[in-house]
Design brief:
Elements (H helix, E strand, L loop, with lengths): L11 H10 L3 H5 L12 H14 L21 E6 L2 H16 L4 E8 L1 H9 L5 E5 H8 L8 H11 L4 E3 L9 E5 L1 H6 L15 H4 L1 E4 L7 H11 L5 E4 L5 H8 L5 E5 L4 H4 L3 E2 L12 E6 L5 H13 L2 H12 L5 H11 L4
Parallel strand pairs: 1-2, 6-7, 6-8
Antiparallel strand pairs: 3-10, 4-10, 5-8, 5-9
Helix pairs in contact: 1-3, 4-13, 4-15, 6-7
């Protein structure tokens, strides 16, 4: 369906598309959430997400749909994001910074997991994707064990498709983690010093673990937890990527352990306990833009690197809390922060 920019930060078509992919979680899990800050459950929402992404384009669209493998036309830079709220927020931050430098931007938010987005950026359907260097490296080479951020970037570069490039990493880091709810921590005497390995004697008979469907099969997931720590769980419940479904399941004790991101404000809010990872299954995870180099002008590269230079973990925590706890629109949060740093 064709759309034209009419008013506001998006044309009516873009606003409609974002509403379509941002379903009301109060209906789904009984927890009110931001209208755009929603982590998609693959099990529950795949059909709705696919329809939203393929049925409507952005106001800058021209009919291109990244899920069909089309490359962007007319010099448009397509900013994609994965299926969790922080990725959507980061997409808005990098996208608006580039827009301020005269780059024509089209947003494709909340597309899916890395298993989907990497293929789309490799074929040029996405131009810029906020990534996390450690998780990306684990996806490309699960045997890599970098000791520094620079080593991680070098190892990723060696594995990337030739048309892809990793831009400057930020100081902002958001790692995967295994968390248990407060009741489980109390029952099994787990403390802030407890490790993932401390679950070995209790998990197989007592603990259900939840996370995105990919967490069950990724090395940086149950496969690596079993390999490095010898931990197996009673069962796995497919939820979402550290989002509202996982949070709700932990709170309700439908799962006792879950895959959570370390910058998630729900950790402190709900007294979840993050287990230590001494064997560094989840290593460096600095926010770093991954780009399809033939489609990104120099102005876009410079704008993205300027954002990364200004972004740190404390900032990411604060911005994420505005979206998840205060229910602010990620685009508004992105614009306000960029303005405070004189990047727009």
């Amino acid at each position: 369906m064709p759309h034209r920019r009419t008013s506001g930060p998006y044309g009516h078509g873009e606003a409609r598309r974002r509403r379509l992919i941002s379903l009301d979680w109060e209906t789904v899990i009984g927890t009110k959430s931001s209208k755009r800050t929603l982590t998609t459950s693959v099990v529950v929402l795949t059909s709705a997400l696919t329809a939203a992404l393929s049925g409507c384009g952005s106001s800058d669209d021209s009919g291109s749909d990244p899920l069909k493998g089309d490359t962007a036309k007319g010099g448009t830079v397509v900013v994609g994001s994965q299926n969790f709220s922080e990725s959507i927020l980061l997409g808005d931050i990098y996208g608006e910074a580039m827009k301020a430098k005269g780059v024509k931007i089209q947003y494709k938010p909340n597309i899916g997991s890395r298993e989907t987005t990497y293929g789309l950026i490799k074929n040029g359907s996405i131009t810029v994707l906020p990534e996390y260097n450690g998780s990306l490296l684990a996806y490309l080479d699960k045997t890599a064990k970098p000791k520094t951020v620079a080593e991680a970037s070098k190892a990723i570069g060696a594995k990337l498709d030739p048309k892809l490039e990793l831009l400057q990493p930020s100081k902002a880091e958001d790692k995967d983690a295994v968390a248990v709810n407060a009741g489980t921590a109390k029952k099994y005497h787990l403390t802030a010093k407890s490790t993932i390995g401390d679950l070995k004697s209790i998990a197989k008979d007592n603990l259900v673990v939840g996370g995105s469907p990919e967490f069950e099969t990724r090395y940086t997931g149950l496969e690596g937890i079993k390999d490095l720590y010898g931990v197996e769980f009673k069962s796995f419940k497919a939820l979402d990527a550290g989002g509202p479904l996982t949070t709700a399941a932990l709170k309700a004790n439908n799962v006792q352990a879950g895959n959570i991101f370390t910058t998630d404000p729900n950790i402190a809010k709900n007294d979840f306990l993050i287990l230590q990872d001494p064997k560094q299954l989840f290593s460096f995870d600095n926010v770093t833009p991954l780009v399809y180099r033939p489609g990104l002008p120099k102005a876009g590269v410079a704008a993205c690197n300027a954002v990364s230079a200004a972004l740190d973990t404390e900032t990411l925590l604060k911005l994420g809390a505005q979206v998840q706890n205060d229910h602010k629109d990620p685009l508004d949060v992105a614009k306000a922060w960029l303005a405070s740093k004189h990047l727009v």
